[in-house]
């Protein structure tokens, strides 16, 4: 997601930017270093440089993974993403245990539990510093809502709670600002489009990849007050996306879901089963990994 480092590099809040991957990072870092900001950009490449890339970081964004292809769900990416996220979380625990860790890698519903379990094993887990970034769902909800109402998309804000795949994505239209109203049929169609928006892009690209540009925008926007998957205070699931008040180093406050309409209560109830299964999938991966003595 090349747009992510570009937006980070241009932020006046960033003094040092480390870019890590198994290929191409040196060229990307050289390119970014020509942008007229005070941020120092360094590229790191290969497993042997991962520790150096993370040393002393305060914020770690993890978009690593593979794109979806037509016919694939985000959950189909699990068996590629599981080891990637476990490896990176392990490296964070060793080199920047106090960093805010923001997981973008799909399936986010499972990769956040993976990262959390790895940090727990190192004794450095802080539930207020691990996030599953779901801002993309909010960006899409705002856009689609504005299309239907004729409102300025920049002025629309729809909280999106739950998870980050299919029916676990729950837009809270009743809490939208400015206030909007739709017929039952229009609301159902809108929910379906928001929940399957990623698939819409995958199909449109005809096998050439999945969403990248809107993802880069969404993750660069993440901050201050956003919805994200975190250790749950809702009680039903161990991890759940809710609106969060963020500070520089942690979640300052999780106000929860707020008042839901009857329609939204039904959507949340439908989301719980799939979300719980995804969370267990991530936790079981780490348990099995430990039992087999795998090292990362």
TrEMBL record:
SUPFAM superfamilies: LDH C-terminal domain-like (SSF56327), NAD(P)-binding Rossmann-fold domains (SSF51735)
EC number(s) on file: 1.1.1.37
Segments forming domain Lactate/malate dehydrogenase C-terminal: 134-286
Keywords: NAD, Oxidoreductase, Tricarboxylic acid cycle
GO molecular function, one term: L-malate dehydrogenase (NAD+) activity
Coiled coil stretches, renumbered: none
GO biological process: malate metabolic process; tricarboxylic acid cycle
The reaction(s) this protein catalyses: (S)-malate + NAD(+) = oxaloacetate + NADH + H(+)
Domain (Lactate/malate dehydrogenase N-terminal): residue spans on this chain: 6-132
NCBIfam families: MDH_euk_gproteo
PANTHER family: MALATE AND LACTATE DEHYDROGENASE, MALATE DEHYDROGENASE, MITOCHONDRIAL
Name of the protein in its database record: Malate dehydrogenase
